């Protein structure tokens, strides 16, 4: 008796745990796009990279501030022989004995002119931040587009499973009817076996569709940062906003190009910094010093202020190669921009052709579904009147099911191709 109660308790606990483990979510397509761009692990890593670049810019701005140093030195020394050359009057000597020395210094240097090193260094950090931000946006757009593909792929798998499940019910009833007819000698046993075989094939296809849905669901959970056991409930495309086709005829500048243009600005800044090495550095300097030698001398209020200048003579023969390297980097970026523009034009052309193809296929799928429905009606009527055989009826049933699946997949594919075109033309905007 105790074992029975214990088993029941375990079953209830297991059911409860399983129920809590599987969280169900309903997501619209726009939610998926924004979640992929903000909550996925990759998106968070991209945000961290942008933040790091921003902090480097803030750090670069500090180079405009003066350099300040304070130092103090205390020395214990032996009893040195002190021989002052200054006349101190008559006597047998000063008899100075000292064994301690203290020195304190404060110095401040404020750059006044650096040939543009500081200004261009700050601008380089700012342009690098912009390049990283644009590159992050481009990567997030690809992440979101990948999420769109998975979301629509999950819709296709779910629709396929639902349509097959619906057909399984019809096939099961058909098997029941065929068994009755076979027992009454109306049809041959071979016809019953064909119907049973088709039912088995439908069940196998249904399991395949369920497996595909689970795999894609898991991948979408991983991408969006959900728990792996989260179940994305049956998706509907009714709420998907239609794409403005006039919008995709306009070509906005892609974030990949914006990033490369910012990288070009960075290279130009680095070139200016290299050229600035030919100029001297002028700075204002000020300070304060204090000195105390035990029993000998104490110096306080020794403040100073002035101008300083420095020039790196080595830059006259060392800097030429740095400038050539910076110029070569500029040339490389220009080549990369040209190649990326070519790649984008190819992507736009391919995306447009894919949209046109998806539209034509969808139109044909709709026609095919109407034809398969009518064909099944006619074949079934013929079968019931003994004009068509079992093979004709089963084939018409398969064709009708395939037409329904094709149309459901085609509708999702058209949306998918529209979003590919939005990305290609620079209109796939994420918040």
TrEMBL record:
<dbReference type="Pfam" id="PF02321">
    <property type="entry name" value="OEP"/>
</dbReference>
<feature type="coiled-coil region">
    <location>
        <begin position="341"/>
        <end position="368"/>
    </location>
</feature>
<comment type="similarity">
    <text>Belongs to the outer membrane factor (OMF) (TC 1.B.17) family.</text>
</comment>
<keyword id="KW-0998">Cell outer membrane</keyword>
<dbReference type="InterPro" id="IPR051906">
    <property type="entry name" value="TolC-like"/>
</dbReference>
<keyword id="KW-0472">Membrane</keyword>
<keyword id="KW-1134">Transmembrane beta strand</keyword>
<keyword id="KW-0812">Transmembrane</keyword>
<keyword id="KW-0813">Transport</keyword>
<dbReference type="InterPro" id="IPR003423">
    <property type="entry name" value="OMP_efflux"/>
</dbReference>
<feature type="signal peptide">
    <location>
        <begin position="1"/>
        <end position="21"/>
    </location>
</feature>
<keyword id="KW-0732">Signal</keyword>
<protein>
    <submittedName>
        <fullName>TolC family protein</fullName>
    </submittedName>
</protein>
<keyword id="KW-0175">Coiled coil</keyword>
